[in-house]
Automatic annotation (TrEMBL):
One Pfam family from the record: XdhC_C
InterPro entries listed in its UniProt record: MoCofactor_Util/Proc (IPR052698), Xanthine_DH_XdhC (IPR014308), XdhC_CoxI (IPR003777), XdhC_Rossmann_dom (IPR027051)
Lineage of the organism: Bacteria, Pseudomonadati, Pseudomonadota, Alphaproteobacteria, Hyphomicrobiales
The protein, known as: Xanthine dehydrogenase accessory protein XdhC
Annotated XdhC- CoxI domain residues: 17-72
Residues in XdhC Rossmann domain copies: 118-258
Protein backbone atom coordinates (compact mmCIF):
# COMPACT_ATOMS: atom_id res chain seq x y z
CA UNK A 1 0.00 0.00 0.00
CA UNK A 2 3.02 2.31 0.08
CA UNK A 3 2.33 3.44 -3.48
CA UNK A 4 -1.21 4.70 -2.76
CA UNK A 5 -1.84 8.41 -2.46
CA UNK A 6 -2.31 9.71 1.07
CA UNK A 7 -5.98 10.45 0.36
CA UNK A 8 -6.60 6.94 -0.95
CA UNK A 9 -4.90 5.40 2.07
CA UNK A 10 -6.77 7.48 4.67
CA UNK A 11 -10.07 6.82 2.90
CA UNK A 12 -9.45 3.07 2.84
CA UNK A 13 -7.81 2.84 6.26
CA UNK A 14 -9.47 5.43 8.48
CA UNK A 15 -8.46 3.39 11.54
CA UNK A 16 -4.71 3.90 11.49
CA UNK A 17 -1.91 5.44 13.51
CA UNK A 18 0.18 8.47 12.60
CA UNK A 19 3.85 7.82 13.41
CA UNK A 20 5.99 10.96 13.31
CA UNK A 21 9.65 11.65 14.04
CA UNK A 22 9.49 14.57 16.46
CA UNK A 23 13.20 14.67 17.29
CA UNK A 24 16.24 13.50 15.34
CA UNK A 25 19.70 13.90 16.83
CA UNK A 26 22.95 12.86 15.22
CA UNK A 27 22.96 10.41 12.32
CA UNK A 28 19.41 9.22 11.61
CA UNK A 29 17.67 7.64 8.59
CA UNK A 30 15.19 10.52 8.24
CA UNK A 31 14.76 14.02 9.63
CA UNK A 32 12.27 15.40 12.19
CA UNK A 33 8.83 15.87 10.66
CA UNK A 34 8.96 12.65 8.62
CA UNK A 35 5.83 10.57 9.11
CA UNK A 36 4.14 7.34 8.14
CA UNK A 37 0.70 5.84 8.63
CA UNK A 38 0.20 2.33 9.98
CA UNK A 39 -3.03 0.36 9.65
CA UNK A 40 -3.64 -3.22 10.74
CA UNK A 41 -2.56 -4.68 7.41
CA UNK A 42 -1.20 -1.74 5.46
CA UNK A 43 1.44 1.01 5.64
CA UNK A 44 1.77 4.41 3.96
CA UNK A 45 5.17 6.11 3.82
CA UNK A 46 8.39 5.33 5.66
CA UNK A 47 10.39 6.81 8.51
CA UNK A 48 13.64 5.25 7.36
CA UNK A 49 13.31 1.49 7.34
CA UNK A 50 15.30 -1.08 9.29
CA UNK A 51 14.68 -2.36 12.78
CA UNK A 52 13.84 1.15 13.93
CA UNK A 53 10.83 1.21 11.59
CA UNK A 54 9.76 -2.33 12.46
CA UNK A 55 9.65 -1.31 16.14
CA UNK A 56 7.49 1.69 15.24
CA UNK A 57 5.10 -0.46 13.19
CA UNK A 58 4.75 -3.00 15.99
CA UNK A 59 4.00 -0.24 18.51
CA UNK A 60 1.47 1.43 16.19
CA UNK A 61 -0.38 -1.85 15.69
CA UNK A 62 -0.32 -2.45 19.43
CA UNK A 63 -2.04 0.95 19.82
CA UNK A 64 -4.71 -0.13 17.33
CA UNK A 65 -5.34 -3.10 19.63
CA UNK A 66 -5.60 -0.94 22.74
CA UNK A 67 -1.98 -1.04 23.94
CA UNK A 68 1.26 0.53 22.77
CA UNK A 69 3.04 3.73 23.79
CA UNK A 70 2.34 7.32 22.72
CA UNK A 71 6.05 8.17 22.62
CA UNK A 72 9.15 6.09 21.91
CA UNK A 73 12.77 7.19 22.34
CA UNK A 74 14.98 4.98 20.19
CA UNK A 75 18.78 5.08 20.11
CA UNK A 76 19.98 3.84 16.72
CA UNK A 77 22.76 1.62 17.92
CA UNK A 78 23.88 -2.03 18.01
CA UNK A 79 21.25 -2.93 20.59
CA UNK A 80 18.56 -2.75 17.88
CA UNK A 81 20.77 -3.93 15.04
CA UNK A 82 21.45 -0.49 13.53
CA UNK A 83 24.66 1.50 13.33
CA UNK A 84 23.47 5.03 12.53
CA UNK A 85 24.58 6.20 15.95
CA UNK A 86 21.88 8.85 16.30
CA UNK A 87 18.77 9.12 18.43
CA UNK A 88 15.11 9.57 17.49
CA UNK A 89 11.89 10.31 19.29
CA UNK A 90 8.65 9.05 17.76
CA UNK A 91 5.13 10.23 18.52
CA UNK A 92 2.10 8.01 17.86
CA UNK A 93 -1.41 9.39 17.37
CA UNK A 94 -4.65 7.81 16.14
CA UNK A 95 -5.57 9.25 12.77
CA UNK A 96 -8.51 11.65 12.87
CA UNK A 97 -10.16 13.56 9.98
CA UNK A 98 -8.47 16.71 11.27
CA UNK A 99 -5.04 15.03 11.30
CA UNK A 100 -5.63 13.63 7.82
CA UNK A 101 -6.41 17.11 6.49
CA UNK A 102 -3.33 18.53 8.23
CA UNK A 103 -1.16 15.88 6.55
CA UNK A 104 -2.75 16.65 3.17
CA UNK A 105 -1.98 20.36 3.64
CA UNK A 106 1.60 19.54 4.55
CA UNK A 107 2.05 17.47 1.40
CA UNK A 108 0.46 20.21 -0.73
CA UNK A 109 2.83 22.77 0.78
CA UNK A 110 5.78 20.49 0.01
CA UNK A 111 4.53 20.13 -3.57
CA UNK A 112 4.32 23.93 -3.92
CA UNK A 113 7.86 24.33 -2.58
CA UNK A 114 9.45 21.97 -5.10
CA UNK A 115 11.99 23.62 -7.42
CA UNK A 116 10.69 24.09 -10.95
CA UNK A 117 12.78 22.25 -13.55
CA UNK A 118 12.00 23.10 -17.17
CA UNK A 119 13.29 20.83 -19.91
CA UNK A 120 13.55 22.42 -23.34
CA UNK A 121 13.37 19.49 -25.73
CA UNK A 122 11.97 16.00 -25.41
CA UNK A 123 14.23 13.84 -27.51
CA UNK A 124 15.91 10.69 -26.18
CA UNK A 125 17.70 12.50 -23.35
CA UNK A 126 14.77 14.77 -22.56
CA UNK A 127 12.44 11.78 -22.25
CA UNK A 128 14.91 9.91 -20.07
CA UNK A 129 15.48 12.95 -17.86
CA UNK A 130 11.75 13.55 -17.42
CA UNK A 131 11.40 9.94 -16.24
CA UNK A 132 14.40 10.22 -13.92
CA UNK A 133 13.10 13.41 -12.31
CA UNK A 134 9.47 12.23 -11.94
CA UNK A 135 9.88 10.56 -8.50
CA UNK A 136 12.23 13.27 -7.19
CA UNK A 137 11.25 16.48 -5.33
CA UNK A 138 11.01 18.64 -8.45
CA UNK A 139 8.16 20.15 -10.44
CA UNK A 140 9.01 19.18 -14.02
CA UNK A 141 7.85 20.87 -17.22
CA UNK A 142 8.77 19.96 -20.79
CA UNK A 143 8.66 22.53 -23.60
CA UNK A 144 8.60 21.32 -27.19
CA UNK A 145 7.86 22.48 -30.74
CA UNK A 146 6.82 18.95 -31.80
CA UNK A 147 3.54 17.53 -30.53
CA UNK A 148 4.64 13.92 -30.93
CA UNK A 149 7.68 14.54 -28.71
CA UNK A 150 5.37 15.31 -25.79
CA UNK A 151 3.85 11.84 -25.88
CA UNK A 152 4.84 9.10 -23.42
CA UNK A 153 6.09 11.51 -20.77
CA UNK A 154 5.34 10.78 -17.09
CA UNK A 155 1.78 11.73 -16.17
CA UNK A 156 2.89 14.29 -13.59
CA UNK A 157 5.06 16.17 -16.09
CA UNK A 158 3.64 19.47 -17.38
CA UNK A 159 3.71 19.60 -21.17
CA UNK A 160 3.92 22.78 -23.24
CA UNK A 161 3.69 22.86 -27.03
CA UNK A 162 4.92 26.14 -28.52
CA UNK A 163 6.48 27.48 -31.70
CA UNK A 164 8.76 29.74 -29.66
CA UNK A 165 10.34 27.80 -26.77
CA UNK A 166 12.68 30.70 -25.97
CA UNK A 167 9.67 32.79 -24.89
CA UNK A 168 8.86 30.21 -22.21
CA UNK A 169 12.07 31.10 -20.34
CA UNK A 170 10.28 34.06 -18.77
CA UNK A 171 7.68 31.71 -17.27
CA UNK A 172 10.17 29.70 -15.20
CA UNK A 173 9.63 30.53 -11.51
CA UNK A 174 12.48 32.27 -9.70
CA UNK A 175 14.92 29.74 -8.30
CA UNK A 176 14.08 27.26 -11.02
CA UNK A 177 16.26 25.40 -13.49
CA UNK A 178 16.43 25.48 -17.28
CA UNK A 179 17.87 22.43 -19.03
CA UNK A 180 18.32 22.81 -22.77
CA UNK A 181 18.16 19.65 -24.88
CA UNK A 182 16.53 20.58 -28.19
CA UNK A 183 17.25 19.08 -31.60
CA UNK A 184 18.51 22.45 -32.93
CA UNK A 185 21.79 24.07 -31.80
CA UNK A 186 20.67 27.51 -32.90
CA UNK A 187 17.54 27.16 -30.77
CA UNK A 188 19.65 25.86 -27.87
CA UNK A 189 21.77 29.01 -28.04
CA UNK A 190 18.77 31.34 -28.13
CA UNK A 191 17.14 29.65 -25.13
CA UNK A 192 20.42 29.64 -23.20
CA UNK A 193 20.99 33.35 -23.88
CA UNK A 194 17.60 34.22 -22.42
CA UNK A 195 17.99 31.86 -19.47
CA UNK A 196 21.45 33.18 -18.57
CA UNK A 197 20.09 36.72 -18.66
CA UNK A 198 17.91 35.77 -15.70
CA UNK A 199 20.07 36.04 -12.59
CA UNK A 200 17.33 34.47 -10.48
CA UNK A 201 17.60 30.98 -11.98
CA UNK A 202 19.51 28.46 -9.88
CA UNK A 203 20.68 26.25 -12.74
CA UNK A 204 21.06 26.72 -16.49
CA UNK A 205 22.39 23.67 -18.30
CA UNK A 206 22.82 22.66 -21.92
CA UNK A 207 23.53 19.26 -23.37
CA UNK A 208 26.69 19.06 -25.44
CA UNK A 209 30.46 18.93 -25.46
CA UNK A 210 33.34 21.29 -24.75
CA UNK A 211 33.34 22.07 -28.47
CA UNK A 212 29.70 23.13 -28.27
CA UNK A 213 30.53 25.29 -25.27
CA UNK A 214 33.29 27.04 -27.23
CA UNK A 215 30.94 27.55 -30.17
CA UNK A 216 28.28 28.99 -27.89
CA UNK A 217 30.87 31.26 -26.21
CA UNK A 218 31.76 32.77 -29.59
CA UNK A 219 28.09 33.16 -30.50
CA UNK A 220 27.27 34.75 -27.16
CA UNK A 221 30.14 37.21 -27.51
CA UNK A 222 28.86 38.27 -30.93
CA UNK A 223 25.44 38.79 -29.37
CA UNK A 224 26.89 41.06 -26.69
CA UNK A 225 27.06 38.56 -23.85
CA UNK A 226 30.12 38.50 -21.62
CA UNK A 227 32.09 35.91 -19.69
CA UNK A 228 29.98 36.47 -16.59
CA UNK A 229 26.93 35.01 -18.34
CA UNK A 230 28.93 32.12 -19.76
CA UNK A 231 30.33 31.27 -16.32
CA UNK A 232 26.81 30.44 -15.14
CA UNK A 233 26.21 27.89 -17.89
CA UNK A 234 26.58 24.20 -17.04
CA UNK A 235 27.87 22.54 -20.21
CA UNK A 236 28.33 19.65 -20.41
CA UNK A 237 25.51 18.73 -18.04
CA UNK A 238 25.94 15.86 -15.60
CA UNK A 239 29.64 16.45 -15.00
CA UNK A 240 32.64 14.91 -16.73
CA UNK A 241 33.64 12.10 -14.36
CA UNK A 242 31.47 9.54 -16.13
CA UNK A 243 31.88 9.48 -19.90
CA UNK A 244 28.75 7.67 -21.01
CA UNK A 245 26.39 9.06 -23.65
CA UNK A 246 23.48 6.69 -23.11
CA UNK A 247 20.34 8.79 -22.43
CA UNK A 248 19.43 7.01 -19.19
CA UNK A 249 22.95 7.46 -17.83
CA UNK A 250 23.02 11.15 -18.76
CA UNK A 251 19.61 11.53 -17.10
CA UNK A 252 20.82 9.89 -13.88
CA UNK A 253 23.90 12.12 -13.79
CA UNK A 254 21.89 15.30 -14.37
CA UNK A 255 19.31 14.31 -11.75
CA UNK A 256 22.13 13.80 -9.22
CA UNK A 257 23.65 17.15 -10.22
CA UNK A 258 20.34 18.94 -9.61
CA UNK A 259 19.83 17.25 -6.24
CA UNK A 260 23.31 18.31 -5.14
CA UNK A 261 22.90 21.90 -6.30
CA UNK A 262 19.50 22.36 -4.66
CA UNK A 263 20.64 20.69 -1.43
CA UNK A 264 23.56 23.13 -1.23
CA UNK A 265 21.19 26.03 -1.93
CA UNK A 266 18.81 24.87 0.79
CA UNK A 267 21.69 24.51 3.25
CA UNK A 268 22.82 28.07 2.53
CA UNK A 269 19.30 29.36 3.01
CA UNK A 270 19.01 27.53 6.34
CA UNK A 271 22.28 29.04 7.54
CA UNK A 272 21.06 32.54 6.72
CA UNK A 273 17.90 31.91 8.74
CA UNK A 274 19.79 30.90 11.91
CA UNK A 275 20.16 33.97 14.17
CA UNK A 276 23.68 34.72 15.33
CA UNK A 277 24.54 35.63 18.88
Amino acid sequence: MRDLSLTAFTTTHSKSILVEITRAKGSTPREAGTFMLVATKAIWGTIGGGQFEYMAIDNARAMLSGGGEAVMDIPLGPEIGQCCGGHTRLAFRPLTPELAEMLERRLRDEEDDRPAVTLFGSGHVGQALARALAPLPFSVSVVETRAEALEDLPAETEKHLTAMPEAFVEKIPAGGAAIILTHDHALDFLIAQRALARADLTYVGMIGSRTKRATFANWLKREGGGDELLSRLVLPIGGTAVRDKRPNVIAALVAAELLEIYAARQAQTSKRQIPTA
